[in-house]
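**User:** Hello, beginner here. Are you able to go through the protein record under this note? It all follows right here:
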Amino acid sequence: MIKAKIAQISSKDGVNFFELECLNLGTNLYMLALNEANKFALNDEVSLNFKSSDVILSRLRLEASLLENELKCEVASINHGEILSIVSLKCEQFFFEAIISDHALKRLNLAVGEQVFAYVKSTSIHISA
């Protein structure tokens, strides 16, 4: 779980944009959510989470992309499946997984110990107190 502090909240018409300072990652992540601003305040410490199936992996840093949440990671382990594969990732002291198709895993040709970039859409980040 990622520990974070709310650095900024912008709201308009029930849509909220959060900038989240990750305390255990040394980076900021961003979240878009509906009707969440009244539940949280600036400087609140929160926990961040996202589904493993919402993680996008790339060998190269995406320069021209709308994906705002980038985590530089190391491949910790790979569990090959017939249809789905699980890539375990380490980012600083935070471990998480990416669930991808076996077809995509073969195309990426990943190996344990390699550096990759993990991306999570801002609409896929969830916060809790």
